[in-house]
């Protein structure tokens, strides 16, 4: 249907459109062989072969040729030059000016012509009436063909996707002037400017037969009970896996995906820039954290306008000038990626250790610096995990990883020694990783050896045995028993689940000197099944207990006596706003009556709050400044959605009050995660303002598999053979939001990252009609293939999260939700996928395979785009400005799909 606002279209244009549609249909239906098309197909890079539409008949001369020195295509048609294109990115752009005098006109009669070049259909519309006389709006719908359409804008080409190809509309603009009578030759002069663009077809991934085996494989650790004989399946995209990230065919395919994404979002670039500027406008570029006391100094970090990274500083607590401890911007200069793992001064505060990742692989180098001179003392050879602890000023402890990226060894390094580093502890069981930390008192170095189900802690007494002492196991591992340990005075305190006895954790204690003594429940803090204890901070006279109750974070205070018992009843610290997040912040002192916490909500920027443990008085030291933000315009609430089994699922919501009307469906972004017992607590994010300020309701679903409602929410209801609850909860929350008129499926976007990307992948398979658009970041979508293979980093560790598909029961269950394995021939929403080539947690080939299979099987024309970061890993950009730019790209796509991008 031809639409020109309220004005009827001239006959010439209507005829042109009719001819255009006829020509398109002719081209698409044309199936006979054509020498020129075959030649073009042969010369194209392999990833673009077999997508060339055969040439149809032309009204004028046309040629297709390949430049002799580079893969650049040129085409000529009716005198219009088109080209050149970027190699491996055949996108054509050109402008040509034609002039005719009197009745002369270089064009044939008004109409439409279609031709194909390099796998693209290009249409040229010729009309004699200047477009400026036809257009009553900035843009008009030129024609509609089913649900496929194009928009013609003055001087701006627009594209029409047809099937697997992109169809480009040539926009013709012109000026028409009459020659004055008696002033020369009669007639008219028509000047036409023709702009033509053409985009590439989506990359078509090759299919190569490859057999996967689930179960017993000789020479491989497939778990304790693998199927024998194994089950075999086919994976035609397995070839995308390249552990070295150097296979030319794989890299070419990923580059083609990026080129396609760039081409398809080209028109959104101004909007992306607008969103980036909005987000940056909410960023306090020059800022300084509130200092925290540590030894004789006050430490803090600051940021400066135009600089991407933090500057670590300190000043004497007694007064004195600022010292720059570490300027990340200096360290990052000239590097494509830079991330700091840890920054810690030595016990005397004369030296500094910091770890840096310069590739995005999460492999760190450990650097030691003299804080008195500012000079580097040494860079420790080899790579570490990013964590390090001081023993004294001459000894450091750090972790090394195995070939599967698992932290498995604790090493001691002596500054300046020629004897080499000393291995102190090694964990050989692939289910376990090792972590190190010092007690708040500074007396003990703890080494936690832990799996998803079990903990074993070893301690090194730095006070008694010195930094060269050995670790002693505190309590041997027992399956299902998890714990961590703190210290104050003559007592050790254990936060533990005691197996199944205290699923939400309780606190035990015993004397330091009595290694054989039994752990006893802490008197005055009885186990409460409704209270989930997540952390215990041990101080000289108090225990500060952090946890959850009723779905949200809480803080309790215990006043302690010299004998290790509670002398006053447990007291909750009240915080006014709800829902909010309260978390333990940076606390370096042991002998103190003050604990620093961070406090924020979906609408409240983070505040630094000091809590007096004696009086429970709270002092706000600083609230993060957010330019161009008026807190009074926004509101937040918690609703509950009933899952299909009757369970109430909490949903945190925030919106802009002046753009929201109860009972009126509005655009909505629904975020979810639901794995590892992780909690999606309310947090303030400046990037989300660009959604909410456009009338988008922002919602976070606290689905099962997370830990928001306690460990049972995760262990009993969202893990192993109850994992399907995670996905159905999310679907039920979305349906509830629709039924309660918060939104509609056509107004809904869904978003998840990492394991949350698994959520998105499973949900769009199960309910593709749930939403308009899905955003999946570094998505864990190839669950079956990854979890069967112990050579893939972190796989064995994850068997205690998802299960092991080499065992029959898990194979059958996990195969129900693994996203790649459940893609079918059906309609899908628009999907935008982001990933990192060097991601050690979710390998790049998982999202690449998922996108390839979606494109191969889906039956709709909705976009599926993959944006692969060829530098960064799992956590995307560490540069704060680049991070905002990447977020702007994601949100521009979502908003455009929801109809909220500028026209």
Automatic annotation (TrEMBL):
Residues annotated as domain Peptidase S9A N-terminal: 226-623
InterPro entries attached to this UniProt entry: AB_hydrolase_fold (IPR029058), Pept_S9A_N (IPR023302), Peptidase_S9_cat (IPR001375), Peptidase_S9A (IPR002470), Serine_Peptidase_S9A (IPR051543)
Keyword match Ion transport: no
Peptidase S9 prolyl oligopeptidase catalytic domain: residues covered: 684-899
Annotated GO MF terms: serine-type endopeptidase activity
Ranges in coiled-coil conformation: none
Broadest EC class assigned to this enzyme: hydrolase
Functional note: Serine peptidase whose precise substrate specificity remains unclear. Does not cleave peptides after a arginine or lysine residue. Regulates trans-Golgi network morphology and sorting by regulating the membrane binding of the AP-1 complex. May play a role in the regulation of synaptic vesicle exocytosis.
PANTHER family: PROLYL ENDOPEPTIDASE-LIKE (PTHR11757:SF19), PROTEASE FAMILY S9A OLIGOPEPTIDASE (PTHR11757)
UniProt record similarity statement: Belongs to the peptidase S9A family.
Name by which UniProt lists this protein: Prolyl endopeptidase-like
Organism: Eutreptiella gymnastica
Upper taxonomic lineage: Eukaryota, Discoba, Euglenozoa, Euglenida, Spirocuta
